[in-house]
Amino acid sequence: MNDGALASATSDVVAKALVKTGVAVREAAADDEVAGVRPRWVALPETTEDVAALLGVCAEHDLAVVPVGGGTKLHWGRRPDRCDVLLDLCCLNEILEHAAGDLVVRVQAGVTMAALAEALAAHGQELALDVPLDGATVGGTLATATAGPRALRYGTARDLLIGITVVLADGTTAKSGGKVVKNVAGYDLGKLFTGSYGTLGVITEATFRLHPVPPDRRWVSASYPGPRLETKETGSSLYVPDPPERILVALAASQAEPSAIEIDWPAVDGPYRVSALLEGHAAAHRALAVQDLFHEHAPALDERAAAPRGWAVEVGEVAPEGWGRLPGDEVLVEVRAPVDRGQSVMVEVFDAARTTGLPAASRMWLGDHLVVLIGLPDDADPSAAAGFVALLRGGLEDDCRVRVVTAPHEAARRMDRWGHVGALTLMRRVKERFDPGRRMSPGRYVGGI
Length: 449
Hints:
By secondary structure, the chain is an alpha+beta fold.
């Protein structure tokens, strides 16, 4: 038997073993690619038990597995080193239990965030997470640790998660937190798996703490001038007339208690808009207090240029356009910085854009730190995009983290996607503990984990 025939026979044996689990399995197509890597098969389990059976077969035949939910973030992270089975969790789409009186919900990982929101809203409750991508699922939101502006008040997915069910690389099912059946001793599975990009195992169920839907929501916005290039006898320098950290800190500390503070900066050489979300009782009254605060902290604002949308306060039921959404998904860079570094980040983005000739759009919000998402054009030259990231990372200090969330392959291979990660050694040990055979999304995460 030649190599081709042997490979074909082996493939038939593996395919039969996958089908024998009782799970629907099909051959992969071109649109099933994971960051450019095409799997051999796509499996569609419907229960945690199905996932366990499939991963048991994959372990037996050394098949690499990449889980997928809605596919909205499948191009995030590094290209997998290999991908034999794409584990499509779309059929794990049930809300298993909603204890409305306890403000708790337990759901399967394939439930979309939109479907969950609709079901909870019928009971006057919500999972207080901003989900910027249509079609995102519970599992994908956890696996990528996606959060948005309301993290300021409610925390991130990791904070709202109170229980999780996962299937490990060898097919073992483990649970942690609420309604525990089996634990992996010494590990908080919820915290480990949130943001792990599918490299430790497969999330199949999650239990969350809920909040009542606020009786009122109001947004207040104001515009501020962006960075400027000032030329003096000693040379040129950048400065921000109204540093964003000044208004951010003032808003966060105000008695108005905003639930979210977001900055939209659509062009590096243009103005930026600060928006604050007020929720709950007396939201309209607190919105007026924020209006006064905007005026107090923006003395340099050119009212004529900003009118009517600058100083004209937008208060109503509809959020500013693009609230909580990402500025782009072709080349997307994330910066995490201390709250008082807003001006530094803006200046460095301005300088990197000016040096590389690339326009950049940014959106940032305040949580326990400042999160800045920077989108570059879809057709950005790969070398220029890589140069942008290198300049940005080089210009910011060690207390800021810069990572490339997603980029086309030609640009990504020129970039250091994650930068320095001090906990990398520990993360590799955790990977070895949970997936010693490197079968779960191999290479997708930091350091090629």
